Each structure stands twice: as C-alpha cells, then as structure tokens.
Amino acid sequence: MGLAVATTRSPGLLSTAFLIAAIVIVVAGCQDDSVFARAFPAYLALAAAVVVFRMIFYILVGIKGAGAVLIPLPQIPLPDWAGGIGLLGPVSASGLVAALSAGLALAALLLCFGAAVSLTNPQRTLRSLPASLHLLGTSAVVAMTLAPQLVSSWKRVRRAQHLRGRRLTGAHAVAATTLPVLQDALERSLSLAASMDSRGYARVHKGSSALVLWLMVGALVGAAVGTYALLDGTGPGWLAVPLLVAGAGAAVAGSVIASRRILTTRFRPDPWRLRETVTAGVGLLIAGLAFFVPQLGAGAFAGLSLTFVLCALLAMTPILVVDTR
Amino acid sequence: MIRLHRVGFAYPDSPAPILHDVNLTIPEGELCLVIGATGSGKSTLLQIVNGLAPHFTGGHLDGTVTVGGLDTRSHPPRDLAGTVGVVGQNPAAGFVTDRVDDELAYSMEQLGIADSVMRKRVEEVIDLLALGPLRRRALSELSAGEQQRVAIGSALTAHPRVLVLDEPTSALDPTGAEEVLAAILRLVDDLGVTVLLAEHRLERVIQYADSIARVTDDGRVLHGAPVEVLADSPIAPPIIELGRLAGWSPLPRSIRDARRQATGLRQQVREQLQLAPSVAPTHAAGTSGRTALKAQRLRVRYGQVTAVADVDLSLCAGELTAVMGRNGSGKSSLLWALQGTGVRSGGTVHLVGEAGSTGYLDPAELSGPDAIRQIALVPQNPSDLLYLDSVLAECRESDTTTGAAPGTTRATLDRLSPGLSSSSHPRDLSEGQRLALVLAIQLAATPRVLLLDEPTRGLDYAAKRRLGEVLAEHTAAGAAVLLSSHDVEFVANIADRVLVLADGEIITDGPVGEVLTASPSFAPQVAKILRPLPVLVVDTVRAALGAAP
C-alpha cells in the first residue's frame, strides 16, 4: 500500500521503474505456490498491456506538445464534433516519455494490487475479519471459489456434448452449454449451503438485532454527513470531526455487539510477528517519505529522486526478514 | 438417540408422500443401515434426521423427530450442528474452505470452540482417520476416497453424537471403501457414535450393521435386525441371495459366517461343475472374436502428471471388458482418450473396419453422427449431455441425430428404467434415471464400440440387473463394450474380460474368472465364500444346483 502511494507521487520515469522492479523482486522472493500466487504473471501481462495501450493512444489521438520530433506523422484533423482531437500528428520524444511514464505509473499501481493479492491469498485475509463481518467473509470465500468451478464445469459440459454426435451452432449451442453449467452451479451452491447450514454456519447466540441495525444506520449517517461537512468548505467545520467520530464509534459498537451474537472462533489465527510488523512499518515509511519529501536528492537525472530509490530499497526489506526467519 | 414418531413427509407438488407413518427408534451407539430402491426416499429420511428437511429443502413434515433430545421442529440444522454430523453424497460439493486442516476446523469455528481445544481435536481426528499426510494439502487435489475421509473428519471434530452418512463409499474403489468403513467402525466401537448410513452396495456394509431400516416403495420404513429385514427384501446382497438359495438359517452376514455354513454347498457345487461343466459361464468365448478397436502406446499427460502410460489395448467385437483400478488410476482418462475427445499425448487409436473392409479409422478424426455410430462414451457425469427440457424432447433429438427409427431411444429407456414420464425435466430425474436416459441416447446409434465410465453409481440391484441385460444384448449384437467400474459384483455378473489399471499402466489383463479371484480386494462375495471354486455369482450356483437331479 505504501508503494501505491509512492507510485502516485512519483514524478518520473526512472523512479517508477525502480518501484516496479522492487515489486517484482518482492513477489518473486516471497511467493508460495498457491493459486493466487500463480496469478501474478497475469498481472504483469496486464500491466505491460496498459503501458503499450497508453503509448498507442498517445500516438493516435494524444495532444502533441512541442519538443524534438521523432516521427513526423501527418495530422489528420477530425470534424468539429470530435472536440478538437486530432488523429496522429508528429510524435515527439518528450511526449512519448511522458506517455510512457504515465503508463508505467498505472502499471505500477496495478502491480501493487497484484502483488498484494498474490502474496496474501485473499482467503486468509478474509479469515482475519472481525466476527461481525464473518458471515460476509464466508460468502466472499464461497463466491471466489465459484469462478474456477464455473470454468471447469463449462469445459466439462462442452466436452460431454461433443459425445452426442451433433455439432450445435449459434444460439442453440450457447443455450445447450449454458443451461447445464448454470444448473450445475446452482446445484453446487445448494449443496454447499446445505452443508454449511448443517455445520452450524450463522448460529445466533444471544442479543437483539434491532440495536445493531440502529447503530449501523447511525454510523452511516454520521460518516456521510461528517465527510460532507469536512470536504465542503462552506459548511460548519466544527460539525465535521465530532460527527465522524460519533459515526465511527457507532460502527465499532455495532460491530462489537454483532460479534457477541455470533460466537465463532479462529483455528490457528495468523499470528502477528516481526515480519508483519516490519512489512507494515516499511509500508508506512515509504508512504510517508513519498508524501512529505518527494524531492529529496532530486536533480541528477530528470525524474529520478533519491526518495524513490530509497523507497524501492525499503520495499525489499521484508524479503530479508523472511529469509532470516 | 434418534426417535421418529409417526413421521410423514411430502413435497407440495408430489402426488404421493415420500415417507408415510414412519416410526423409528435408534438407540445410542448403533450403526443403522438405510436401504431402499433408487429414489425411494433414503436421502429424505437422512435429511429429516438432521433437520435439513424440511428446514432447508421445503416440504411438509408430520409427526415428531427428536435427535439427542432436541426436536428438529424447533431446532434448525445449524443448531443441531453440535449433535448431528452430516456427510453428503458428494463430499467435494460440501467443502467450505480450501485446505484440509481448515476444513476439519470449520465446524468448530462455527460452534465457537477455543483455539486450543480445536487444535487438540483436529489432531485426534487426524490420528483416527489417518489424515496425517494430507493435513496441509488443498482439498481439490485429493482423491475421492481422501475427500470422503476428510468430510467424515470435519463432521467428527464437532464431537457429534450422531453421524449421518449418505452413500459414503459410492465413489470409492474397494480398498478406499474399506478404509472409510473401518474409520466409521472405529467411531462406533470406540466413541459410541450413533451412525445412520445409506448405501446401495450392501455387500460392502452389511456385515457391520447393527440394524437395518428398509424404505419401501410406498414410503414406509421397516426397521429391525439385519437378517430379519433382509430375509424377504427384494434388495439383498449376493451373500444373502446365496443364503436364501442354499436355505441357510440364520442367513449369513459376513463371509466368515457363510464359509462355515457353506461346506456342504461347496461340495455339491463342485460335483455339479465336474458333471456338467457347461453350467460354468462361458466367458472365454469372446476373446477369439474380431478386433474392433486397437490402441497402441496410448499416453495421456496433464502437465507433469502421467494419467495413462503407454497402454496397448485391443477390444474385441462381442466382448464386454471391464477396467478396474484405484481412484485416480487413469480409468476415465483412458476412456476419453480412446473416444478421441479427451487429451491424448501420444500413441495411436484405430477403429478396425467391418469384416472385409481394410479401413483404419482414428475416432478423433470422426465427427458428428459418424462418430457415435462408431464409438460412443457415457461419461461419469451423464447429466452434462442433457440440455433439452423434457425426456421426450431428448429422445426425439437422439432419434433424429442418429437416424434411428422414431421411438428407438424411448424403447431402450423403458427397458432400462420403466415408467419415466415423457414430460418430466431431465434435471428432476434421479441419478440412476438420468444415466438410463443418457445410455439410451448413446445406444440409439448402435455404436460399434461403447465406452461407459462408472455406470453403476446410485443404481440399486434391480437397476444394475437391467443395465447388465441391455449391455449383454448390445454385446451379443456384435459391439465391443468397455466399462470402468469399482463395483466388483456388477463386473462379476456381466464382464468377459477384466483389465486392472494402476498408475496409468495395465497390470492385469485376463478373463473375469481369473482376475477377480486372484486378489481378495477385487473378489466378489460368492467367490470368497465358495473359494477355491471358480464361481463368481449366485446365478452360476443356481444353475449348478438346478442341474442337479
């Protein structure tokens, strides 16, 4: 997350490149062999595609500024309704670099997200949710296992239907495949729900649900009005902070009461160890550095400042902790 | 422990009640076996015990059901979770988490048991069911038998006093089934758990049952000692049929009982076989037939895993071959590769043309109706083939696709599973009925090679007999049939030749009599009782005794 903040504040090409390198190294270093970890290459491909698309769009419809012209393409003016966007036009070096760095920044953000997913395994993250959100968490886990199941049952049905010796075409084929797949998914979810029900999912112990409901509504209202007051400069500023605090308080209270009603426990909760502390600390540090002193040591190269080299190096420290453990 | 008092159960749209006036009392620590014909309401009876019916399934319940002193009327399934553990027919569909130890702990997490207690219980269950090597594995990577053991384990960690199991061994090979049953027995013996278990393959479980509840076709339940209930039951394993035939009293339940009573019978059968060898099945007849399909060095790989390794195989016209082997030994991959739709990583498959023609065809190169006139496959999950909205439409579609005379499919279907309504939706049929429909569809083209993947799941004895008859007829008409099965008794009844597959290699290939008597885990009950006589099935004994003056 710290890296993501750093990325958005990153002024130039090289800084971003450093950050991306750091992400890739961290993922390569910490990866285990889970399904989610295997998804990281897909994120890499997506990020590369983003960069390429950004470049293509720049060449096609980008607004070309001044600068050394690399490829003197003719500009094709579009009719007025296109709002002054011209097709092609001369491609300048500085424009290309700007497009590249913007694309890279987006790509880096994507990679941050990809790294987070592939390193943490969402199912384990969901297990750390507070008890009041436990039911939601379980639903999310179930939903996440559904997608791969759909794909596999789609393949199975397609294969099986070849056996009937008739090539179906068009809408008929889609219906013929979709129906069994959806029915399969429905039956699966029903049997899963039956299994969860008979294993004690959503047992209610004590307490009233009305109180929780009112607390939650209060929390929402507080948060909404408070945020509005805070952001809208014309509103009474003194109202904002107390409302936000009250809203947050109501949310916490509601959550606690809800947690008490649903008594569940965690098997082998993930412990908070040195590694977790270091990772979180480094994240905060990076975000702080990038936010407050982005220009530290800037100058030697365009778009490269010492801060971001530092950030990239810092980002890699969690690997060291893992290795020394 | 479990009490059902004047219980009736009906779905709103069904004409007749599924269960009717059921009185049943199962004391603590008893293993009660639930039997009944396909679709007779066994599963419903089990669901009533844990409250899933009617709380989850809907429908109308009369009478009272109490489990461990709790009335299911006022306690939904989730409140009974600490009392009743349930393992469904397809355990993989009931897994909530993705790792073995998390799955074992899931019930306890829901019940709010402290972490330290959970760890202790998980260890206990891992020891009890021998799950040690699996504990950190992903659930999706386990074999069917392992998944079943994990499902039982995850029901056990909540320390239920009642365990309800719906066909726990239906997907398992004989060895895997024994492992699961041994685990269940330990629970009954050591922990005093009350077990309610539904099963079609009685030969696997009958010896362990303390009592049997038979669900009759009109929705009543007869409950009593196993031998009493089975004495006049139309559903009976070979050992009971043999006992009835020989007039033994009391009827034997285990191989050991039967062998002690069988001394006279063995002598009698031996004499008859010597006098009239013709009553012994002439299984060897087909092997001299013409080759219908030939596979050479056939190989199937999925990534790093080799499922089928360099298999040479030829199937003869007019011969019924069975493939057996452990779960995950490559049986399905072999069938799909032979058919041509599945993955094939190497080797060749040829359909040998009709006598006189010299054409060699690879089934993978055929398409459309041509393909199913040559080679047809009934997959493990037959419902994947069905996509129309009624039985009638499916039958018509099949007749027009294959160019068969109108009504062909329906006629076959009526033989396999009589009395199916034309207007019913294929999805509403029971598993056995759907299989019958798909088989009828695939047979409409009278394929020269027929492949069947696990065709006996969920079938009762009568349905298996009908399936056997249809297959025998098809074989006699000159087709080659290859089926994979874990069902030893079924294979003993219908197959001419048996292949045993292990790790993708054929390790045994021979006539059914030799292969099935060679290893104790593949031997049918009659062979075990009458050993060393080469007799596999009750019908042979009946023929031998019938031939006696």
What's the gist of this structure?
Chain A is mainly alpha-helical and 325 residues long. Chain A contains twelve helices and four strands; from the N terminus they run αααββββααααααααα. Chain A starts with a helix and ends with a helix.
Description:
- The complex is a heterodimer of chains A (325) and B (549).
- With 325 residues, chain A is mainly α.
- Chain A has 3 domains: 2-127 and 269-324, no CATH class; 131-198; 209-261.
- Chain A has 12 helices and 4 strands.
- Chain A has helices spanning 2-9, 13-30, 40-61, 93-120, 122-127, 134-162, 170-198, 209-231, 237-261, 274-292, 306-315, 317-324, and strands at 69-71, 75-77, 86-88, 91-92.
- In chain A, β2 (75-77) and β3 form a beta hairpin.
- In chain A, α1 (2-9) runs parallel beside α10 (274-292), α2 runs parallel beside α11 (306-315) and α6 crosses α7.
- The longest helix of chain A has 29 residues, at 134-162.
- Chain A starts with a helix and ends with a helix.
- In chain A, 26% of the residues are buried.
- Residues 297-303 of chain A have low confidence and may be disordered.
- With 549 residues, chain B is an alpha/beta fold.
- Chain B has 2 domains: 2-236, 3-Layer(aba) Sandwich (Rossmann fold), CATH 3.40.50.300; 284-502, 3-Layer(aba) Sandwich (Rossmann fold), CATH 3.40.50.
- In chain B, the strands form 4 sheets. Chain B has a 6-stranded mixed β-sheet, with helices on both faces.
- In chain B, α17 links the parallel β17 (449-453) and β18.
- In chain B, α3 runs parallel beside α5 (144-156), α5 (144-156) runs parallel beside α6 and α15 (408-416) packs antiparallel against α16.
- At the A-B interface, α6 and α7 of A face α3, α4, α13 and α14 of B.
